[in-house]
């Protein structure tokens, strides 16, 4: 997954897809009239190779700093997925294949912290220990990583890969409701015409 944002004259990239899907990163940035070399901020929603695999390449090409939650940062720096719960089907294979180029995380965040570009972090653990959803407050756009996603026409909470100690849903329903409420409140209070419909699922 990946989601580029253009705001305050800078380009922020959330996630970088798999190590071999660089063309998708280029395509998304080109759509914004930008390029990998112009990325000024990089954010990792979580330390899985299908989201973090291309981040080292983007960081190397752009020189941009990398932001991640403090609990997932150690795994990103090692280029490894965090421990996977025993209830996850195919756990062994996923752990063996769950490596990617090491990501030099430069800044760590905790729940509720904001960074430049109008982006606020919401800690939504379960899929990984430090999984984080990001709210772009100026537009009310919510990037949920793998915490909330569309599957076969339905909105689903969490994914099939979960961290140890998670019994069912990787993230509590009450946490998601609070997150969506915050997104809607931000959109409704924005000076622009953005509203709650600006909230989006992960790309």
Structure description:
By secondary structure, the protein is α/β, with parallel strands linked by helices. Helices cover 26% and strands 22% of the residues. The protein has six helices and eleven strands. It has helices spanning 22-31, 49-52, 55-62, 73-78, 91-97, 173-189; strands at 3-7, 10-14, 39-43, 66-69, 107-109, 114-115, 119-123, 132-136, 141-143, 148-151, 154-157. The protein is globular, with a radius of gyration of 16 Å.
The biggest sheet amounts to:
5 strands, mixed
How many H/I helical runs?
A: 6
Structural class: alpha/beta
- β-strand amount: 15-25%
Rg over CA atoms: 16 Å
Span from first to last CA?
6 Å
- Label the overall shape: globular
Number of beta-strand segments: 11
Arithmetic mean pLDDT: 79
- What string, H for helix and E for strand, traces the elements in order? EEHEHHEHHEEEEEEEH
Helix content percent band: 25-40%
How would you write the strand order of the largest sheet?
Answer: 1-2-3-4-5
Poorly predicted ranges:
168-174, 190-203
Task: Using brief descriptors, characterize the structure shown.
single chain; 203 residues; alpha/beta; 5-stranded mixed sheet; 4-stranded antiparallel sheet; 11 strands; 26% helix
Summarize the structure.
The chain is built from six helices and eleven strands. The chain has helices at 22-31, 49-52, 55-62, 73-78, 91-97, 173-189, and strands spanning 3-7, 10-14, 39-43, 66-69, 107-109, 114-115, 119-123, 132-136, 141-143, 148-151, 154-157.
